[in-house]
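Support request, please re-run this one:
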Amino acid sequence: MAVFTPIDQAALQRFLAHYRLGHLLDFAGIPSGITNTNYYVTTEQGEYVLTLFEQLTAPEIPFFLELTAFLAERGIPCPHPVRDNRGHYLGRLHDKPAALAQRLRGNTVEAPTAAHCAAVGHVLAQLHFAGQQFPRSRVNDRGSQWCEAAAAALANRIDKPDAALLHAELRFQSRHQTSGLPDGIIHADLFRDNVLFRGSSVSGLIDFYYACTDALLFDVAVTVNDWCIGANAELDARRTASLLQAYHAQRPLTPGERAAWPAMLRAAALRFWLSRLYDLHFPSAGEIARTKDPGEFKRILANLAANERTLRDTWPQDPSRSALHED
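Re-run finished. Output below.
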């Protein structure tokens, strides 16, 4: 989340006139994130998050709004969008597609414990189960084809060691396909800044704007690569085991997913190294915006590649599923 398009009070009041939310009491820009413009909005009826979509087009956005409404109505703690007076989730503000959603209360966690990771693993599996019933699908627009295109665009902007690591990983990933793994709706960006906690419980999953249909294991890998990484950019065994075991207790992981796990962790690290490199070298203008350090995921990727043999050590053990113990 970020502020790329500043909003004035008069324009916001005109926008809110299309909703039954009462008078505007307060609003403030949300400075975190890198993609859309976001504001906290308080009216007589409650607290909301207003999003102006800076990159997605109006025809693309209903998928995400319908998805979060669908999940929220099935008990997943994500922000339910608000319908306007005509029953629509999507409107326009400052000539940008715009939507309001309920503001979820809670705090992000900077230094997650094993208990936090278990809670995230639990709710992620619940999200995957609920998403199986969602009637729409969406191609992952940050999948392998995007990675190859982004690498080509960056070829003349990164140094030789980075280029060598990048091309070696692309070759590795080309030999490891994910077809045949369980798939469905995934969040695809479940980092610490997209999960809210109240006490020890998850109170909110936010920022679904990379959600798509892909291998469920990719979503698990994206999540582990953020929640379970230590200061040395290596997986913390206890936190990783806690997240995977909690997930596995809700949706049992398969032998095929176990076999794909090391390559999938690397695929997830590659995707975010590339996206951060791309944002660094091809930035979007913004009033308030943050570009995240691509070096973090370069280090994670290098460590995953160097320690592949140990990556299955934290895989959840279930005596009733002996296949999970096979080497």
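DSSP finds nine helices and nine strands in the chain. The radius of gyration is 20 Å.
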